[in-house]
Design brief:
- By secondary structure, the chain is of the alpha/beta class.
- The protein folds into 2 domains: about 100 residues, P-loop containing nucleotide triphosphate hydrolases (Rossmann fold, 3-Layer(aba) Sandwich); about 90 residues, Rossmann fold.
- About 45% of the residues lie in helices and about 15% in strands.
- It is built from 9 helices and 5 strands; from the N terminus they run ααααββαβαβαβαα.
- It has a 3-stranded parallel β-sheet, with helices on one face.
- Strand 3, helix 6 and strand 4 form a beta-alpha-beta unit.
- Helix 6 packs parallel to helix 7.
- It is globular, with a radius of gyration of 17 Å.
Length: about 190
């Protein structure tokens, strides 16, 4: 699911376009994200503005179908774990239904300890398996703040934490940066 298609283009391709460019199953951007909305708002509100509703069971079915055709199923959080997809259905509910392990993305700067630990806690309370937190964009020369944030999240959250450096806005550069992460270790369990 993608919202914000009405926003002006940036240097970065939209998530579904970027994922389609690296999809090993030859999926188009429309197949990667079959539910799309123009306004840059939460999915449930975007659906309201479009005069439609997101049906959670249909969304889960679509995700399973797409995942069956690919090497991996990646579901981006559309703004975060507690963002509503429908009035009584959050991103977290979809993750539970799909039994997906989580890798949480967060910024490395001020405020990330609280944000990251709240997300880890909200996931674990629901029975989700949090594999790691990725701080991004990770500076080339992290300072005391970033390093302290990383250590603190790892210690208090009892979760692996890694930094993902800023990359060029293309699939090859992003894939190169991702190779620095222990994704196989995180997701093989």
């Amino acid at each position: 699911m993608v919202t914000g298609l009405d926003e002006p283009a940036t240097d970065w391709p939209r998530d579904h376009d970027l994922l389609a460019s690296v999809a090993t199953a030859g999926q188009s951007a429309d197949e990667v994200s079959p539910v799309r909305f123009g306004p840059p708002v939460s999915p449930h509100h975007a659906a309201e503005l479009a005069g439609t509703a997101i049906e959670p069971l249909d969304l889960a079915r679509l995700a399973r179908e797409r995942g069956a055709k690919a090497d991996a199923l990646v579901c981006e959080g559309v703004g975060g774990l507690l963002v509503p997809l429908a009035p009584a259905y959050q991103v977290r509910d979809l993750a539970i239904e799909l039994e997906l392990p989580l890798v949480i993305a967060a910024r490395p700067g001020l405020g990330t300890i609280n944000h990251s630990l709240l997300t880890v806690e909200a996931a674990r309370v629901a029975g989700l398996d949090v594999r790691a937190v990725v701080l991004t964009p990770w500076p080339e020369s992290p300072g005391d703040l970033e390093l302290s944030n990383m250590r603190t999240i790892e210690a208090i959250g009892r979760v692996a934490v890694a930094g993902l450096p800023e990359t060029a806005p293309d699939a090859r550069s992003l894939a190169g940066a991702a190779q620095r992460l222990p994704l196989t270790d995180w997701l093989a369990r």
